[in-house]
Inverse folding.
């Protein structure tokens, strides 16, 4: 993968923090857009490279390239041609945003993450075959595994759309479908930024039964850690508030074996399932993007109807059938006296008879049982 930053002639101050695990794997190039000529950059006062040999490090740049020039940070194994045609967001490329004049943009990126970095745009619903229905040992699950609907969520702890789903849509889905045995939810990790990966590493260190509560804490505190260069220290602070020690949190973020396992899962999900945005859901094999609760409700009810399974929403009561009168039968003449009225009694001698009370006008609203409206 490669990170591209094109000079626009307006941005004068620019900052990027590019983090990598192996200094031997990256190179920093300045390309002339007109001629295609590339020059390998060496550290100057404008940018620095930390780390060496096979160690981790970072590239820090402070001055934007001039108009007509492009900065490329890429793996050494990748060809220059692969980076030359990069425009916008096209896998495996990631376009880095450009600030307004005299503004500073601070962007974190991980080289090992580029090939699988999704955007956060909704996914167009489409039919797909999902082979990973069975939850893996690291998946978080909720509900009855024999439910008629299996819903798999791929999400990132640093993704705002994922946090919105966890706060607004998921509680309603849980109450109306998961808790009623209609939906089995499998939650899978798909961190999309360095802070998201750090948060995932910390959460994954906890016992499986404690992870969901801690994930909820991380979603609620995104503003404290998900968009900051100092995310590691901020994550430690959040973890300590949740009862984890500093030593434990720091150890988790340096767990290379766990890191490799998460990356392997992402690679499978990206290649086999075509995940390009987060959150992404698979509902009985159908790939769908995020949406309001009512859209999930409509999808669930449609599936349950197709399966002839009672849904969560009450159905409208069918009108009572009417029995036709036998042929030749005549209806009795309607009584002129309401059934509930009685003939006035003869008043005792000496009393004046009072006129009968006028019968109440029958209600114009049909009986409730005849017009049961569908429940929303």
């Amino acid at each position: 993968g490669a990170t591209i930053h094109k000079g626009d002639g307006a941005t004068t101050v620019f900052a990027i923090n590019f983090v990598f695990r192996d200094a031997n794997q990256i190179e920093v190039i300045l390309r002339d857009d007109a001629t295609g000529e590339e020059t390998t950059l060496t550290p100057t006062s404008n940018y620095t490279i930390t780390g060496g040999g096979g160690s981790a490090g970072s590239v820090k740049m402070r001055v934007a390239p001039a108009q007509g020039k492009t900065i490329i940070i890429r793996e050494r194994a990748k060809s220059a041609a692969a980076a030359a045609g990069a425009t916008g967001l096209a896998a495996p490329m990631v376009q880095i945003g450009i600030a307004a004049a005299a503004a500073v943009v601070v962007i974190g990126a991980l080289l090992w993450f580029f090939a699988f970095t999704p955007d956060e745009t909704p996914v167009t619903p489409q039919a797909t075959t999902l082979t990973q229905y069975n939850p893996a040992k690291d998946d978080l699950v909720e509900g009855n595994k024999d439910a008629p609907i299996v819903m798999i969520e791929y999400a990132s702890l640093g993704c705002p759309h994922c946090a919105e789903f966890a706060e607004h849509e998921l509680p309603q889905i849980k109450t109306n479908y998961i808790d009623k045995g209609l939906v089995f939810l499998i939650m899978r990790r798909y961190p999309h930024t360095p802070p998201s990966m750090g948060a995932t590493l910390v959460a994954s260190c906890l016992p499986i039964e404690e992870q969901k509560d801690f994930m909820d804490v991380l979603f609620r505190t995104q503003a404290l850690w998900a968009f900051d260069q100092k995310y590691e220290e901020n994550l430690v602070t959040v973890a300590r508030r949740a009862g984890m020690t500093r030593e434990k949190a720091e150890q988790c973020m340096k767990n290379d074996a766990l890191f490799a396992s998460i990356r392997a899962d992402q690679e499978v999900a990206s290649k086999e399932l075509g995940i390009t945005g987060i959150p992404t859901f698979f509902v009985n094999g159908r790939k769908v993007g995020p949406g309001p609760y009512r859209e999930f409700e409509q999808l669930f009810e449609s599936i349950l109807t197709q399966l002839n399974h009672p849904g969560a929403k009450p159905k409208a009561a069918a009108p009572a059938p009417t029995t036709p009168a036998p042929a030749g039968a005549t209806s009795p003449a309607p009584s002129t006296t309401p059934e509930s009225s009685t003939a006035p009694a003869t008043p005792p001698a000496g009393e004046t008879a009072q006129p009968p009370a006028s019968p109440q006008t029958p209600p114009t609203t049909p009986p409730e049982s005849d017009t049961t409206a569908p429940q929303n």
Summary: Residues 78-129, 334-376 have pLDDT under 50 and may be disordered.
